[in-house]
Write a structure and sequence with these properties.
Structural class: alpha/beta
Largest sheet: 5 strands, parallel
Order of helices and strands: HHEHEHHEHEHHHEHHEEH
Number of helices: 12
Number of strands: 7
Shape: globular
């Protein structure tokens, strides 16, 4: 996993460091005191889904298709605000039932920024260090939250560093964590709004995904060309990377969509 992250995850040293630390400590402990809870934050195309699926692939045979991996999307599973009480009940039952079947299960919550506020707090009893909940030992489970929320704060802090002539790699993890937690906790549109998960410090690792610069996008283009079995021509790499929008408007430093649209753009240049 460490090697794969180093080779294939572009421009995210903090992510590599946090994810490896979390996974290694958790798996080496035969009797963890609580489940591993990680929250991935960052704007579109910075690698959040890529890392969560890579992580699951290494930990579970069959990856996301494994019967012990459960993925939730608010748009698919919890679309109607008026049914929130019903969703709370079924989510709690689903997690409880699956942990009874297999204590080493993984639960992936996508697009936490679109989750109805208040819904996610129903899983709080499963995240803390209690010994047994509802008659189930669940401390070997893994919970991963994925969210665009906090992305704006991460981008602003990275931009401030750039303006101060500092490298984006010099960014302080602690400062980022504080800014992200504050942003998601105080935003009424966020799934973590006023959430006990944040308040009670149940997230073990807040993992910030930084915005990607032009040379990172070029790395993504090269990887994608190789993956598609196409010739890596420097001219094409440059053109694809140049075709992507960058921000801020004036300086154009960071990709507005990360590497998300790289794959679909390549066909325009061949």
């Amino acid at each position: 996993l460490e090697c794969d992250l180093a080779m294939n995850l572009v421009g995210q040293p903090l992510v590599r460091q946090q994810v490896m630390k979390g996974v290694r400590e958790f798996l080496e402990n035969r009797n963890p005191v609580k489940p591993l809870v990680m929250s991935f934050h960052g704007s579109t195309g910075t690698g959040k889904t890529y890392v969560s699926s890579m992580l699951i692939r290494y930990l579970f045979q069959g990856g996301l298709q494994s019967p012990y991996v459960h993925q939730f999307s608010p748009i698919v599973h919890f679309p109607h605000a008026e049914r929130i009480e019903q969703y709370k009940e079924s989510l709690k039952r689903w997690i409880q039932g699956n942990l009874t079947n297999c204590g080493r299960s993984a639960f992936l919550f996508d697009e936490m920024d679109k989750m109805h506020p208040g819904l996610i707090d129903v899983i709080i009893p499963f995240l803390g260090p209690s010994w047994v909940v509802y008659g189930t030992n669940y401390r070997k489970a893994i919970f991963i939250f994925v969210s665009n929320a906090g992305g704006e704060q991460i981008n602003d802090m990275t931009l401030d560093l750039w303006r101060a002539r500092k490298d984006r790699e010099e960014i302080s993890l602690w400062d980022l964590e504080q800014a992200i937690s504050k942003a998601v906790f105080e935003n009424p549109q966020s799934g973590f709004w006023k959430s006990g998960i944040i308040n009670e410090h149940l997230i073990d690792f807040v993992v910030p995904f930084l915005p990607l610069k032009h040379h990172h996008v070029k790395q993504c283009v090269v990887s994608e060309l190789v993956q598609q079995g196409l010739e890596v021509r420097p001219g094409v790499v440059q053109e694809v990377a140049d075709s992507i929008p960058y921000f801020p408007e004036e300086e154009k430093i960071f990709s507005s969509t990360g590497c998300k649209t790289v794959a679909s753009r390549i066909s325009f240049f061949f």
